[in-house]
Amino acid sequence: MNLKKYIIEKSKDIGIDIVGFTGCNRLDSLNDYLIERKAKNKETEFEEKDIEKRIDPKKVFPSCKTIIAIGISYNVDFNESVDFKLKGRISKSSWGEDYHRVVKEKIEKLIKEIKKEVDFNYEYFVDTGPLVDREIAKKSGIGWYGKNCSIINDYYGSFVFIGHILTDLNIVPDRELKEKCKDCNVCIKACPTGALEGPYRFNPQKCISYLTQTKKDIPYELREKMGIKVYGCDTCQLVCPMNKKAVKSGKEEFIPSITKGYIDIEEIFTLSNKQFKKKYGHMAGSWRGRNILRRNSLIALGNMKNKENIDFLRMVLKDKNPMMRKYSAWAILNIDKYLGSLIVKEAMKFEKEEDVKKDMECLLKYFQNKN
């Protein structure tokens, strides 16, 4: 039988939109770039530190011969409005069910189908493995690199979740696709923080998607660029011409029927951890926990520039969590630095933690010197 054809057909039956095949050669074209990123301290805490494991499939799965890459579009249409006032935006990647679970389930179904025809050994990953999955996707012909470093498929665009299976099967690889951005630089110009430092040059530490997930302190000047985004950032994809003509996804799993694409900011400060998990635990953005989304919500409130929100923020200034007190102080000052300075100075009289007090002092100086 033609195993490759069989896998492609079964993938479609399972609901996998794109499938491609590549060998298990080292991803050497990335080596110098990853070394440079490491030297310039542009890595994130989420990625594998051992560069060899990032570029050599056989370091991950020694008997690897073929990698099966899959892509599932999450570019669903949804425009329902929400009935709450203070809202923080959620990236499309976290609109519906956690894509890790959805893609994992489809990969496991595909593995079972392949097992019906041939016994084989494998390892599979959905955004959790050490290898650079976008490079695997490119080498397998699933798509090509856009200048925003996203993988773009000619048919589905870049709103595509990627997974891959390392196997000991012998399957003819597909051809790589060449980049097609040509002279277009729309994504680079649109990036709010300048994380896209040039064509195919990406600084993840400045990316809003990363900033909404890190537990590290977010630089003041970058907070101002985050808008009302509380998880993820779709800007560079939304402006991409390839996505404007891409076929929409019909995957109901990714429709945000519960959140409608937003966090209710007032509500998230009233939810217990148990209640948070019950309402938001289904989505990918919940993995960082309630407090990180609360922190991001405070940044969103600050960026709304609405003085009516100051009363709410003053209550958060008394929160038992030090991080909430620090970020609510920033938000108040970002709304009104003159009124905010009075409020923050008063809060400092009762602040018992030196770390928080020191941050408030830095905030006052920062906004005092800001035009």
From TrEMBL:
The keyword Lyase does not apply. It comes from the Bacteria. Its EC number is 1.17.99.6. GO terms for biological process: tRNA queuosine(34) biosynthetic process. SUPFAM superfamilies: 4Fe-4S ferredoxins, ARM repeat. It is an enzyme of class 1 (oxidoreductase). Keywords: 4Fe-4S, Cytoplasm, Iron, Iron-sulfur, Metal-binding, Oxidoreductase, Queuosine biosynthesis, tRNA processing. Residues 171-201 form the 4Fe-4S ferredoxin-type domain. One of its GO terms (molecular function) is epoxyqueuosine reductase activity. PANTHER family: EPOXYQUEUOSINE REDUCTASE. This is tRNA epoxyqueuosine(34) reductase QueG. It comes from Anaerosalibacter massiliensis. The gene is queG.
